Amino acid sequence: MNLIMNKEIDEIYAPLLSFVKKRINNREDAEDITQEVFYKFSKAAFDEKSNFKSLLYRIAKNSIIDYYRKKKIYTEEITDFKFSEDEKSPRITNDICTCIFKFIDKLPKEYQDVIEMSEIQDFSQKDIAENLEMNYTTVRSKIQRGRKKLQNLISDCCDIIQNEKGRIVDHKCSNKNCD
User: Fold this and answer.
1) What are phi and psi of 170, to 5 degrees?
2) CATH class of the structural domain 76-179
């Protein structure tokens, strides 16, 4: 049985690493998270008849969420930022994530995970439904409602300036207390 499982693990490593790399900007972090997934998998109690690939991807999804939650603790608040539609560097992405996490944390719990996975980690709605074991239509509705609630939270605190394509080009914080 172990020989069969080792062969299956060898076959799933590359796709799992690819899954993680799509959601993490740093290759080394993605490799570390993938190794962590296999470590957690080795410690997990599961039925031999269960689909271990599903368990691996669920562990990966949770590890990615943990990665972003840990990362936001160590980042500094952005007081003034500008970016154009041509800038797509990881630094800009990380800066936006840092700022947005404050607002995501203010959302009702039922919207936090789906918005974080959709907007920060760039999961497809179908992948979110699979990973959270929810109906696709429910996930789609939660994302739409969560986006609206997130937009309201941000607009209560900041004036966002967008170009004609809807990309953020500048922001101005109001004098309101946004914490």
Assistant:
1) -170, 165
2) mainly alpha
